[in-house]
Amino acid sequence: MEDLKRAINAMLNSGAKYPPTLPELVESLKYSEVCFHEAYQRFLKGKRGSKAEQYVAQKYGYELRRMNADMAQQRFKQWLKLALDAERRGDLDKKDKPQRISAHSVKNTNDLARERAQHKRLAEPNNFAVGSVFHRIAAMVKG
Asked: Which domain holds residue 122?
């Protein structure tokens, strides 16, 4: 009940002339523990905040710094809400962990270059003039 009173008072103090509608009230209760202005100030100063704040700073920080102040604060609030929802669902931790490439799918760049040269028939000395650098290299590769 106290959260409800606090949410209504916060909306009225922010300049609203009327009490909030039900969807506005539900949304303000959903994010009542977050002060978006303080989170935005922490982002601007480069200080660490919650996981959701760190995620927004890392993923959207470049874009936010290139926007004007009002637009950046609106977008920060929007992206922070999405990140908070993802954190509540448990999806934010999955996004933070880099996925490792399996060992059998990785090819060495030397192997790729060798395959490309064999495909273009660059490893056969007969394709080049005798005495040229390319002829000597092809002879060394062929062995």
From this structure: 108-142
